[in-house]
Design brief:
Number of helices: 4
Shape: globular
Number of strands: 0
Distance between the termini: 14 Å
Structural class: mainly alpha
Strand content: under 5%
Order of helices and strands: HHHH
Helix content: 55-70%
């Protein structure tokens, strides 16, 4: 498995869904669809996305440390 980071390619907004998809072997589109559908449920999904956006390193920074 790959590490968890925001890739440079395949981004739509911040690359969080693309990074999660790569990490867990799913397509970015599938993760995006799940993220949008989860927003229909009550909970802090949007806040979690923002936290991941801030916490996940960019691909360049991730590969510099590996």
């Amino acid at each position: 498995m790959n590490g968890l980071y925001r890739p440079r390619d395949g981004r739509m907004i911040a690359g969080v869904c693309a990074g999660l998809g790569r990490r867990f072997g799913l397509s970015a589109g599938t993760v995006r669809l799940l993220a949008v559908l989860s927003c229909l449920l009550p909970g802090p999904q949007f806040v979690v996305y923002l936290v991941l956006w801030v916490m996940l390193p960019n691909e360049d920074r991730y590969k510099a440390h590996v």
